[in-house]
Amino acid sequence: MKALVLAAGKGERLRPLTETMPKPMLEVGGRPLIHYPLMMLKRAGITEIAVNVHHLAERIQSGLGDGSSLGLRITYAPEKVLLGTGGPLCRLRDFFGSQPFVVANSDTIMDLDLPSMLELHRTRGAVATFALFRPANMSAYSHLEIDHDRRVRRMRLLTGRDGGLEDFPPGPPPAAVEPYMFCGLYICDPQVYQGMPPEGPFSSMKDLFAPMLVRGLPLYGYVHRGFFRTVDDLTAYEKLRCEFAAAPPEFN
Predict the structure, then answer these.
(1) pTM for the complete prediction?
(2) Closest by CA position to 184, among listed 137, 225, 231
(3) Which of 15, 16, 17, 58 has its Cα between 20 and 30 A from that of 233?
(4) Per-residue b or e along 16-26, where b marks 16 or more CB atoms closer than 10 Å to that residue's CB
(5) Residue 9: phi, psi to the nearest 5?
(6) What is the C-alpha separation between 88 and 8, in angstroms, rounded?
(7) Which of 100, 9, 99, 113 lies closest to 51 in space, CA to CA?
(8) Which neighbouring-strand residues pair with 144?
(9) pLDDT band at 27 (very low <50, low <70, confident <90, very high)
(10) Domains within the chain, CATH numbers bracketed
(11) Beta strands 48-53 and 165-168: pairing type?
(12) What one-character-per-residue DSSP string does the chain give?
């Protein structure tokens, strides 16, 4: 199994830091932020990883090299134009091949039990399975609503920073579901390519997975209840640096 770690964004909400250093290479706990998802993948036995790059790409490539210092094999996927969260998948179809694959954000730290999540994905016959979390404040994030069997029944996607939500499928809410936030990692079956938009910038959630949900394809959620932090902006970044300096978490 292989993986993609998304690292091409400009990190605009972390300016001025990201004017000279790409967000994935910002330091947390004595190491670059991107090391945490990379090591999480390695703990699950995934060592062949693609990293898409755009903003200050050379800083990421020089910092990670070929991945051998981390026990990984890293393939870079440069983007002359940002392709969004979904567009990079089009260019990596041959890299992933005929096996399921994992996509993870580079700005999230969590002790996810990825092998258990992979088992859920396989046993449910899912096209995609999303890592989910229940934050203290759900209003800042899109909602994925799952039923008792953990199948995704509705996506409520943020339309902007004003907190508006667009529902997929539209209409009245489904019964007996629980809302969670998507926490930046999902597993895909190669079947996902059958419903993928043409190559170009697109959103994985709105343009790929939401239409699949409307068509009734099996999408599932895996609820993570352990350590979870994500770096949304400068305030979150400084808070996380202080937390790691005071009491760094221990990961296996």
Answers:
(1) 0.93
(2) 231
(3) 58
(4) eebeebbbbbb
(5) -65, 165
(6) 10
(7) 9
(8) 155, 180
(9) very high
(10) 2-245 (3.90.550.10)
(11) unpaired
(12) -EEEEE-----GGGTTGGGTS-GGGSEETTEETTHHHHHHHHHTT--EEEEEE-TTHHHHHHHHTTSGGGT-EEEEEE-SS--TTTHHHHHTHHHHTTS-EEEEESSEEE---HHHHHHHHHHHT-SEEEEEE--S-GGGS-EEEE-TT-BEEEEEEE-STT--EEEES-SSPPSS-EEEEEEEEEEE-GGGGGGPPPSSS--IIIIIIHHHHHTT--EEEEE--S-EEE--SHHHHHHHHHHHHHS-----
- Angle between the N-to-C axes of helices 114-124 and 35-43, in degrees from 0 to 180, rounded to the nearest 10: 60
By C-alpha distance, which of 160, 155, 164, 165 is closest to 207? 155
163 pLDDT band, cuts 50/70/90, is low
CA dihedral (33, 79, 77, 206) positive or negative:
positive
Rg (CA), the chain: 17
Side-chain-facing half-sphere of 119: CA atoms under 13 Å: 5
Q: Could you tell me the pLDDT band of residue 161, with boundaries at 50, 70 and 90?
A: low
Whole-number Å distance between alpha carbons of 20 and 230 = 21
Environment class of residue 65 by beta-carbon count within 10 Å: exposed (0-12), middle (13-18) or buried (19+)? exposed
**Lookup: tokens for 10:** 């400009």
